[in-house]
Design brief:
Length: about 230
């Protein structure tokens, strides 16, 4: 059976060494979702397609193969997002974006892909704090997957929440009087920040983002596990 070329705009979300000089690359394509391909010989000195196997690389990829077994034959780079690696906070945040994108793209998610690319561009520019950029991405991720949350009002009694809030998958964000059993507490500072109000210090912003990651796990069953969150502990 002949192999067929596949063309897709894709970003590298993961790459690991394979055999002596190859890399096994996980790509997320705009129109194809997640797939795996081999970048042959890219670990050799002067390899022409080495850049095509580097995490964060976004480009027009040409893959050859069939039945889910692909080889990268061409790549025209659109954006490398290389500057993200110059700042540790931005790098950790960028790795979190790649991890989330990869885990949620078994099927094509074009809007999430666009959100991820915008987020990486914002991290690369360095014009805004990395934690705030992460907050925007995680909130948009929830919204794109049908889970938009209102951190200012109780989803049950509709009151304005002034202090701590509580989350349960069946009810969403609720006040103390409506919390019921088996809830996740969202402290008042994190809740106000996630509602678009207060702007706490860096440590507290990181803690608020860790709460968002926990809510993503509760609602979508996806655990985002990168250094960005372990550094908040």
């Amino acid at each position: 059976m002949q192999t067929a070329d596949i063309k897709t705009k894709a970003i590298v979300v993961r790459a690991v060494p394979y055999k002596e000089s190859d890399m096994l690359v996980t790509l997320v394509g705009v129109d194809m979702g997640k797939l795996t391909a081999t970048a042959r010989g890219c670990l050799k000195r002067g390899a022409k397609l080495r850049y095509a196997a580097e995490p964060f690389n976004f480009g027009d990829y040409v893959l050859s193969g069939r039945n889910g077994r692909y080889v990268i034959t061409e790549c025209s780079q659109i954006e490398s997002f290389h500057a993200i690696t110059d700042d540790l906070d931005s790098y950790y945040a960028g790795c979190m974006v790649l991890d989330a994108l990869g885990k949620l793209s078994d099927e094509p998610q074009p809007q999430l892909m666009l959100s991820a690319l915008r987020t990486l561009g914002a991290l690369e520019s360095g014009q805004e704090d990395a934690d705030r950029i992460v907050t925007k991405f995680l909130l948009e991720l929830l919204s794109l997957n049908g889970n938009q949350l209102d951190f200012a009002h109780c989803n049950v009694c509709k009151c304005n929440i002034d202090g701590d809030a509580f989350f349960r998958d069946a009810d969403g964000i609720v006040c103390e009087h409506c919390k019921g059993l088996n809830f996740i507490r969202i402290d008042a500072i994190s809740r106000a920040y996630l509602a678009g109000g207060e702007q706490p210090d860096r440590r507290l912003r990181g803690e608020a983002n860790a709460i968002l990651a926990q809510l993503i796990y509760e609602m979508l069953g996806v655990r985002i596990s990168t250094r960005y969150f372990t550094e908040q502990i």
